[in-house]
């Protein structure tokens, strides 16, 4: 009888180990927020210009791709700047700090991938669905790989990550003359597809999506009809979702 009882011990400890891991994960939820886009999403502020009284909450964690400079890419670190060069910072510093201040009962983590120059219609194109990887743009593939690796590492560390939202700053690449007016005029439609696909990609149907308007003032290489078309597409998309929300209510 003792031999039979002992033979079940490995299974018992394995079961206990996995049960404990799942319980630990459930007790360690972390809200994950994604950052993506181009030039202004990478961050163009200089660290030397940060006021000395600016507080950065290093209890927030950050994870970023190899195209952003700071510390080690693809490694979770306490919140720090991650931009094109080590002397610049982006929205991550204030965003992470304010999110943690607001959601103080849950740990906050940021995953960031951004790169200057890319457009939405090709570089950030997501394909028609998750299986359509053949038509996904280069930057979107980098983005997905970065997010999935970040989430996997959090789980391995005993956290239970939940993607809460995404912050997007992009559009200049689609507003340039070389992009072509057709792509500029389709920006709103492409952005709507992007939002739906990001939600589908990470299985969060109602994920918060925040985007900033581009080109608030005229610039020579970003002027004229393409620029107006991109901004118009951004505003019309807001109107579309507002009207949709009114119908639901």
Descriptive terms for the model:
249 residues, 43% helix, alpha/beta, 9 helices
Radius of gyration: 21 Å
Strand order of the largest sheet: 4-3-6-1-7-8
Largest sheet: 6 strands, mixed
Shape assignment:
globular
Low-confidence stretches: 1-25
Tell me the helix content.
Answer: 40-55%
How would you describe this protein?
The protein has 249 residues and is an alpha/beta fold. Helices cover 43% and strands 16% of the residues. It has nine helices and eight strands. A six-stranded mixed beta sheet has the order 4-3-6-1-7-8, sandwiched between helices. A two-stranded antiparallel sheet has the order 2-5. α8 (187-201) packs across α9 (224-248). It is globular. Residues 1-25 have low confidence and may be disordered.
Strand-helix topology:
Blueprint: H1 2-7, H2 9-26, E1 29-37, H3 39-42, E2 45-46, E3 61-64, E4 77-78, E5 88-89, H4 92-102, E6 107-114, H5 138-156, E7 160-169, H6 172-175, H7 181-185, H8 187-201, E8 208-211, H9 224-248
Parallel strand pairs: 1-6, 1-7, 3-6, 7-8
Antiparallel strand pairs: 2-5, 3-4
């Amino acid at each position: 009888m003792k031999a039979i009882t002992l033979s079940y011990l490995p299974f018992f400890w394995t079961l206990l180990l996995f049960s404990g891991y799942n319980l630990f994960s459930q007790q360690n939820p972390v809200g994950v927020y994604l950052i993506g886009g181009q030039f202004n999403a990478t961050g163009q502020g200089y660290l030397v210009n940060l006021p000395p009284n600016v507080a950065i909450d290093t209890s927030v964690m950050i994870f970023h791709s190899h195209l952003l400079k700071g510390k080690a890419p693809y490694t979770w670190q306490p919140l720090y700047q991650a931009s094109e060069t080590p002397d610049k910072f982006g929205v991550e510093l204030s965003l992470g700090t304010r999110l943690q201040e607001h959601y103080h009962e849950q740990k906050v983590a940021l995953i960031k991938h951004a790169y200057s120059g890319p457009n939405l219609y090709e570089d950030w194109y997501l394909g028609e669905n998750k299986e359509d990887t053949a038509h996904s743009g280069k930057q979107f593939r980098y983005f997905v790989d970065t997010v999935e690796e970040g989430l996997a590492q959090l789980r391995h560390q005993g956290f239970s990550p939940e993607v809460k939202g995404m912050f997007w700053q992009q559009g200049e690449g689609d507003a340039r003359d070389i992009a072509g007016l057709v792509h500029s005029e389709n920006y709103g439609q492409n952005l709507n597809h992007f939002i739906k696909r990001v939600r589908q990609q990470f299985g969060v149907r109602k994920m918060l999506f925040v985007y900033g308007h581009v080109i608030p003032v005229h610039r020579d290489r970003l002027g004229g009809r393409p620029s107006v078309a991109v901004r118009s597409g951004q505003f019309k998309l807001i109107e579309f979702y507002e009207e949709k929300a009114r119908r639901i209510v």
